[in-house]
Amino acid sequence: METDVPTATNGRMLRLFTALTLPDDVTDTLKRRQSGLPGARWRPLEALHVTLGFYGEMDERRADDLASELSRIGGGPFEITLKGVGAFGDNHRSHTLWAGVETPNDPLSVLSGRCKKAAERAGVVMETREYRPHVTLAYLKPQTNPDRIGAWMAGHNLLHSPPIRIDRFGLYSSVLTDDGSHYELEREYLL
After folding, report:
1. Rounded distance, CA 132 to CA 153, Å?
2. C-alpha to C-alpha distance for 169 and 18, rounded to whole angstroms
3. CA 147/CA 61 separation, integer angstroms
4. Which of 17, 50, 78, 174 counts the highest number of beta carbons within 10 A?
5. What's the rounded Cα separation, in Å, for the pair 137 and 172?
6. 190, 189, 186, 188: which is closest to 63 by C-alpha?
């Protein structure tokens, strides 16, 4: 499925990322875990994905260049497995809950690296950070009780999905709203 990258209107910049979409049975399993923690802003079903690369804001021409470079990525289908949960944060303050992707996973790392190289060829400057594949489950309010976060993680850390076949990835746009980010699949690329 190929669609045109969205047009930037009125000089607006496009906020783009690549990700793996998860099958309904996996997102349903994750959704059942999204409860029992006051202060968590749980992500909606359509936002449960594994990010490959976040490109940030760009104009329409750069978005077209990126979409073109991404279409050159191949590699063939592979599998991932979700395993465990955790939190990102600093200074003893967690800000994000996630479900992990079992690593090492060479085909996933290669695909993420190819998405980064495609961005470089398109002139997109990305943050340099280690790739840590995960599914964001919730964003946490600053006042969320750390003991409750720990208890939630202990109660859900046995998460272990069956193998998930990955045969495509998508280029998504992200629009920030008062209710959080809204994602739209712009292009889909077969592996």
Report:
1. 18
2. 7
3. 47
4. 50
5. 18
6. 186
Contact present, 7 and 145 (Cβ < 8 Å): no
Torsions phi, psi for 103 (to 5 deg): -125, 160
Cβ contact 101:50 at 8 Å: yes
pLDDT of amino acid 77 = 97
CB-based contact 171:69 (threshold 8 Å): no
CA distance 79 to 166: 6
Decide: 62 and 80 in contact? Cβ < 8 Å: no
Question: DSSP strand E in 66-177: where?
Answer: 78-80, 82-90, 93-101, 134-140, 164-166, 168-177
Model pTM above 0.85: yes
